Amino acid sequence: MKGKPKLTTCCLINHYNYRDFVREAVASAVEQTHPFDEILVVDDGSSEEHLEEVRRVCAEYDAVRLIEKKNGGQLSCFEVGVAESTADVAFFLDADDVWDPRYVESVMKVFAEHPEVEFVACNERRFFPDGRSEVTPRQTRDLGYSFVRALKNGGAFVGQPTSCLAIKRRILDDIFPLPQARGWRTCADEALVYGSSVVGARKYFLGEPLVGYRIHGTNHWFGKKYCPKDRLLRGREVQRLVEVLRLRQGLPISMANLAHHEFRTIEGANKNDYTEYQRLVGSSQLSFRRKLRIRLAIFAWYRLGKRI
């Protein structure tokens, strides 16, 4: 009896003016204990000196292919990379980050042991120019489904930064193409995370910190202070994304009537999960009696999980 065919893998590195870091990023992809079937570097219209460096780096490896495009932002790099790839699983990597050599092997083990999982997020180790590093200890667990909570104005961010994400082709084909790529010039990991939730990905979190998240002076997210205007515009893009994908998937505006079922798919649901689902149901348009039944079901499952 033949076994199931092995999933093929692709590394998608998005690069824009990161000549000081891209060599380490590419090397960390090439040196994986589970080799990639494809390694694509998508340059987003970098200035000439940065483009020359990324060309030199990619030319050193037969397994690496460079794709040059006009500047369009981070999400446009994802779209181009996904369109060019033929692999079953895409691993996303920012050009300023690095991976532990065991990263892909560990993620593929999750996919093999949990074939229903379509989205894996991994814990990260933040490292600084002075040599310091820090890790927030987190537990490996099945994050379940999150489309019910995503339809509620985006809901919780059930994921990780770009370099910590591995997503199956089925999910990416349901997300892309997106009409509002210009709204995601940076922080496009949110589009991947929220988009995967809406289209029904079962998610899994790997607690071992196998991703090196570099802290430096030009991070687009870490350490940045956002004013109310920034938060407003980012929230608008998230809700627009959710609405586009909701309509594409043929989903109703709210699925709060399924909240208790979705909650039960989360392994070791914590207090934040519990609170969010209770609020989601409480603010829905369901009848008082229906709300009460669902909220009691969520409470009972949460208490049961605490006793186990």
Automatic annotation (TrEMBL):
The Glycosyltransferase 2-like domain sits at 13-176
Keywords of the record, alphabetical order, are: Glycosyltransferase, Transferase
Matching SUPFAM superfamilies, A to Z? Answer: Nucleotide-diphospho-sugar transferases (SSF53448)
Q: Does the keyword Zinc-finger apply?
A: no
Per the UniProt entry, the Enzyme Commission number(s) are: 2.4.1.212
Q: Write down a Pfam family by its short name.
A: Glycos_transf_2
Question: Which chain positions lie within coiled-coil regions?
Answer: none
Q: Name one GO molecular function term.
A: hyaluronan synthase activity
Transmembrane intervals = none
Q: What is this protein called?
A: Hyaluronan synthase
Native organism is: Saltatorellus ferox
